[in-house]
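Worked example

This section walks through a single chain of length 202. The input is the sequence exactly as stored; nothing has been trimmed or padded.
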Amino acid sequence: YALSKDVEYSTDFPKGTNAGDYTVWYRIQETNNYTGEAPARVTVTISKKPVAPVIALDRDSFVYDGTAKEPIVTLTEADGTTEIPAGEYTVTYSNNVNVGANATVTVTAKPDGNYEFTPVTEPFAISKEQAKVTTAPEAAGDPLIFRNSDQNLVTPGAGTGGTMVYRVGDTGGFSPGIPRETNAGVYKVYYKVQGDGNHSDS
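Given that input, the structure is written out below as tokens.
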């Protein structure tokens, strides 16, 4: 037997591992008392293994930082223990940068591989990063003096991951404008960075 016509033949049965079509050549070899026979061939097919794979991720949650998240994939057969080699499939990631974008990883069997399965998808989470105050507002003036007109109570603050907002007093809503007051008195100014779609408030 041989796997090619014009090579040395052997009495060993030819073997194949990977899925595909194999052409096996065979012949009767001549001896001192018998003539040989011309080579003939037979086609043998090793079919792909059908599986229902299970995806496992090395981690299924991330905190937003502006970079693409790509958890490491391990793929097993339905028993959850028989691992499918990484060279047998491709991995693609979708919506894997921003918060709330339904991040997923999809595994697809390679067309020239040894396994056959429909693509499988696994979701993972990207949570909000907390916004940060980089420059805290400070009291304006040293101190402010009544002028019978509105004055800024604080210097502008700055932050990352959203918009700096302010509130005068313990109640009420925050707004991005620097708080201003006219009358003499003591004012308590609260501030924070109001997070954007990828950030929680500071």
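What to look for: The chain has no helices and 19 strands.
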